[in-house]
Write a structure and sequence with these properties.
The chain contains five helices and 15 strands. The protein has helices spanning 3-28, 78-99, 102-127, 134-181, 304-320, and strands at residues 29-34, 37-41, 44-48, 53-58, 65-66, 71-75, 183-185, 190-195, 202-203, 208-213, 217-225, 238-244, 251-261, 270-278, 297-303. Strand 13 and strand 14 (270-278) form a beta hairpin. The strands form three sheets. The chain has a seven-stranded antiparallel beta sheet with strand order 1-15-12-13-14-11-2. It is elongated. It is α+β, with helices and mostly antiparallel strands. Among the domains are: 31-43 and 213-307, Efflux pump adaptor protein, beta barrel domain (Elongation Factor Tu (Ef-tu), domain 3, Beta Barrel), CATH 2.40.30; 77-180.
Length: 321
Amino acid sequence: MTTNSRRLQWHGVAIVLISFAVPVQAQQEKSIEVTDCVVRFADEVDVPSMVSGRVSEVAIQLNQSVEQGELIARLDDRSQKIRRRALGLRLEHARSEANDDVELRYAETALAEAKAELDSNRSIYDDVSGAVPLSHIRRLRLAVERGELEVAQAKKRRLENNMEVQLREADLSMLDDEIANLQIASPLSGAVIEVSRSAGEWIEKGHPIATVARLDRLHVHALLREDHLSPSLCKTLPVSVHWTDAVSGSERVLRGTVMSVDPQMLPGGRFRMHAEIVNRRDGDSSNWMLLPGTTVRMKVYVSEAAMQNARSQGQSRVNHY
């Protein structure tokens, strides 16, 4: 066999191998297309007021983009600010009283003087009998005891003053927390899809002042047939959503993952599946590629073995009945 014929033979073998490799790879994973889909917000939060009061400012507008922690509205805080000023003055006075040690130093000085006088008279009494009356010594002892009690009383007052400072600080912290609750902030990043109150209106505690929805994640709810794919195999499967752009006419694609499957079958052997899609900005603009309510079709990617297993289970149920 010539060299050229051997080359042709090896090229033929390579071509045969490639032609057999393509179908094997294609059979490893297939997609099931679902057209009965609904796109919804992943998170849609009614932002409540933490206290009752009059709305003094609404800092957002309908359809505005907001970041987590961004101010949405502010309630009237004039009375709280007046109370805070009064509590601040009381706290300063309590700190001044707690730092004032004049009473304690005076009591300690008086005690030291009483002890010195007692020691001096006792020394004279011991050296010269009868030079100092015993009654005078008793009075000096009582003076020392009184001085010790005055020192203990002064220390107790200082301790009470320090406790008063802590109580005033706690009152001020509680009021600061109340004032902070008058500032209503967005709990997540997204878009404002509803504004329920305007400046000047009254709002009760717990009532929503606005609704914020997340747009970087979307949920797709779809109906599938059990004979196409078993519900037990759906969770964590990769998916993609496809739709046609209304302006350019081009097909758009986003990817995600199956989150869960409802534990209840529907008539016709159908079940409801829920997938989360990672949304993206449309190029350099601030617009999102996919919006809730868009008509889409979804592809669920599953291995051929799993599909065969689903078909076998479905056929076995039919034969059983």
